[in-house]
Design brief:
Its EC number is 1.2.1.3. One of its GO terms (cellular component) is mitochondrial matrix. Possesses activity on acetaldehyde and glycolaldehyde in vitro. Belongs to the aldehyde dehydrogenase family. It catalyses: an aldehyde + NAD(+) + H2O = a carboxylate + NADH + 2 H(+). The termini are far apart. The strands form six sheets. Strands 14-15-16-13-12-18-19 form a seven-stranded mixed β-sheet, with helices on both faces. Strands 9-8-7-10-11-21 form a six-stranded mixed β-sheet, with helices on both faces. The protein has a three-stranded antiparallel β-sheet with strand order 5-6-22, with no helix packed on it. The longest helix has 23 residues. The chain contains 15 helices and 22 strands. It is an alpha/beta fold. It binds adenosine-5'-diphosphate.
Length: about 500
C-alpha cells in the first residue's frame, strides 16, 4: 500500500495566529455583526482559530474605504514609480517572512510545507515584483485618425476591484489578482475563501508595513453567498475578478450583470487532458502525468485529470503509473519529504470518496488507493483508475482530488475529438517527441494553455485562463494587465475651429 509516513501526532507549526479580524481602511476590526467562524486544520479537523465573519455591512464598509482611497487618492494620485516601490518593498518583506507565511498556509490548507516555502511563496514574491515592474510602464497610444485630429488613448484603472479567491492556492491567487489590480492604480476589496482566510490577512498587514496607504487593499473574510455575493452585486465596485468553480462563476457573473454590469474576469474549473502519444518517453510521461494530477492533493483547476494514453504504450504506462502512485509519500504536511497532505475539508473529502466509489461502480479498474489514508483528518490514498471510459462520471466531472483516470486511444484524430468533448477548456498536456504531432495537437486543442513535454509551468509572464466554461479573460503576464485597465480615447482638433 501507500508509502506511509506516520500521521499519529500532528506536528505543531510553532507559530501563533495573530490576526483574525477584517482589514478595512488599514485597520483591524471585528465584523459589524460581531460574528466569527472557525477555520480548521485539515490534518485533524480541529479548529485553528475563529475569524471575523464579514457580511453585507462589512463589504459596504470595505467598498467605501476603497472608493475613498481611489477617488480622493492617494493611490491613483501617487506616481506609478511610488506605487511600484511600495509593491517592491512588500515583495521584500514577504520574502523575509516566507517561513511564517508558509507555515500559516500549510496549517490552514494542508499543503506540504516544503512546497509552500520553496515554490509557492517565492512565486508570489516573483509575481509582485513582476507587476511592480509594470506599474510605471503602462501607457496608451497615439492614433493616426482620419481628418484634422490628434487622437490618443489613456489606459486608466477601473476604480474599486472586487477580488474573490478560492482555497487551493490562497496566496498564489492573491498575487495573480492583487498584483495587477494595484499596479494599474486600482483599489481592492478582497474576499478570501472561508476555508483559508489566514494567510491573506497576514500578508496584507505586511503590505501596509511596506507603505500601502489605508483603504487601498481591504480584506474581508467570510462566506460566498453572503460576503462574496455582496461584493459581486455591489453598485460601487467597478470590476470583479473571480477564481473558483464554474457553478459559482455563473452566479457571480449574473450578480454582476444584474447590479451595475461591472466587467468580470473568471478563472473556473477544468478537466484537462494529458495526452501521451506513441512516441513519448514513457518514464518521463508517467512522472509528469503523476505530478500533473496529484500536485497540491489534486486540488488544481488545471489538474491533468484525463490521462489519455496511446494503445501501443498503454499497458506499460498503467503499470508504471500505478507503481508511482504506490510510492507517493502521504503524511503530515509539516514533515520533510512529504508529497501529499490532507484534502482541504470534510466536504471535499467526502465528495472525492464518492467519486472513487462511482468509478468502481461504473466499471473502471482500480489500480491503487481508493480509500481514506490513515484514520484522522482528510487524507486520501493516491488513487489510480485505468480502463476509464468517457461516459463515466470520473471522466467528466472535476473531482479536485488525488484520483488519476487513465484511458486508451488509437489515433490523433480520435484523441483530439475526445479531448475537446468537454464543456471545460483550461489546459492540456501533450507528450511526444514528434514536432508534427505536437503542432497538430496544439492547434486542435480548445484550451487556454498547452504544455508540451512539461506541465504546470507558471511563470509570472505567461498568461493563464480558460476556453469555454473554464473562464473568460486572462491572468498573469501582459494579458493580465488589460483586465484592470479601461481605455479612454481623447480627441483634440489640430487647429481650433
Ligand atoms: P469551492 O466549491 O471549491 O469552494 P467556490 O467557487 O464555491 O469553490 O468558491 C470560490 C470562492 O467563491 C470562495 O471565496 C467562496 O466563498 C466564493 N463564493 C461562493 N459562493 C459565492 C456566491 N454565491 N457569490 C460570490 N462568491 C461566492
Amino acid at each position: 500500500s501507500t508509502a506511509a509516513a506516520a500521521i499519529d501526532e500532528p506536528i505543531h507549526p510553532s507559530i501563533q495566529v495573530d490576526h483574525t479580524q477584517l482589514l478595512i481602511n488599514g485597520q483591524f476590526i471585528d465584523a459589524a455583526s460581531g460574528r466569527t467562524f472557525p477555520t480548521v486544520d485539515p490534518r485533524t479537523g480541529d479548529v485553528i482559530a475563529r475569524v471575523a465573519e464579514g457580511d453585507l455591512e462589512d463589504v459596504n464598509r470595505a467598498v467605501a474605504a476603497a472608493r475613498k482611497a481611489f477617488d480622493e487618492g492617494p493611490w491613483p494620485k501617487m506616481t506609478a514609480y511610488e506605487r511600484s516601490r511600495i509593491m517592491l518593498r512588500f515583495a521584500d518583506l514577504l520574502e523575509k517572512h516566507t517561513e511564517e507565511v508558509a507555515k500559516l498556509e500549510t496549517w490552514d490548507n494542508g499543503k506540504p510545507y516544503e512546497q509552500a516555502a520553496k515554490i509557492e511563496i517565492p512565486m508570489v514574491v516573483r509575481m509582485f515584483r513582476y507587476y511592480a515592474g509594470w506599474a510605471d510602464k503602462i501607457h496608451g497610444f497615439t492614433v493616426p485618425a482620419d481628418g484634422q485630429h490628434h487622437v490618443q488613448t489613456l489606459h486608466e484603472p477601473y476604480g474599486v476591484c472586487g477580488l474573490i479567491i478560492p482555497w487551493n492556492f490562497p496566496l498564489l491567487l492573491y498575487s495573480w489578482k492583487v498584483g495587477p489590480a494595484l499596479a494599474c492604480g486600482n483599489t481592492v476589496v478582497l474576499k478570501t475563501a472561508e476555508q483559508t482566510p489566514l494567510s491573506a490577512i497576514y500578508v496584507s498587514k505586511l503590505f501596509h508595513e511596506a507603505g500601502l496607504p489605508p483603504g487601498v487593499l481591504n480584506v474581508v473574510s467570510g462566506f460566498g453567498p453572503t460576503a462574496g455575493a455582496a461584493l459581486s452585486s455591489h453598485m460601487n465596485v467597478n470590476k470583479l475578478s473571480f477564481t473558483g468553480s464554474t457553478a459559482t462563476g455563473k452566479i457571480v457573473l449574473a450578480l454582476a450583470a444584474k447590479s451595475n454590469l461591472k466587467p468580470v474576469t473568471l478563472e473556473l474549473g477544468g478537466k484537462s487532458p494529458f495526452i501521451v502519444c506513441k512516441d513519448a518517453d514513457v518514464d518521463k510521461a508517467v512522472e509528469l502525468a503523476h505530478s500533473a494530477l496529484f500536485f497540491n492533493q489534486g486540488q488544481c483547476c488545471c489538474a491533468g485529470s484525463r490521462t489519455l494514453v496511446h494503445e501501443s504504450v498503454y499497458d506499460e504506462f498503467v503499470e508504471k503509473a500505478k507503481a508511482r502512485a504506490l510510492k507517493r509519500v502521504v503524511g503530515d504536511p509539516f514533515k520533510t519529504g512529504i508529497e501529499q497532505g490532507p484534502q482541504i475539508d470534510n466536504e471535499q473529502f467526502k465528495k472525492i470518496l464518492k467519486y472513487i466509489r462511482s468509478g468502481i461502480e461504473s466499471g473502471a479498474t482500480l489500480e491503487s488507493g481508493g480509500e481514506q489514508f490513515g484514520s484522522k483528518g482528510y487524507y486520501i490514498q493516491p488513487t489510480v483508475f485505468s480502463n476509464v471510459q468517457d461516459d463515466m462520471l470520473i471522466a467528466k466531472d472535476e473531482i479536485f482530488g488525488p484520483v488519476q483516470s487513465i484511458s486508451k486511444f488509437k489515433d490523433l484524430e480520435e484523441v483530439v475529438q475526445r479531448a475537446n468533448a468537454s464543456s471545460y477548456g483550461l489546459a492540456a498536456g501533450v507528450f511526444t517527441q514528434n514536432i508534427e504531432t505536437a503542432n497538430t495537437l496544439t492547434r486542435a486543442l480548445r484550451v487556454g494553455t498547452v504544455w508540451i513535454n512539461c506541465y504546470d509551468i507558471f511563470d509570472a509572464a505567461v498568461p493563464f485562463g480558460g476556453f469555454k466554461m473554464s473562464g473568460q479573460g486572462r491572468e498573469k503576464g501582459i494579458y493580465g494587465l488589460s483586465s484592470y485597465l479601461q481605455v479612454k480615447a481623447v480627441v483634440t482638433p489640430l487647429k481650433n475651429p
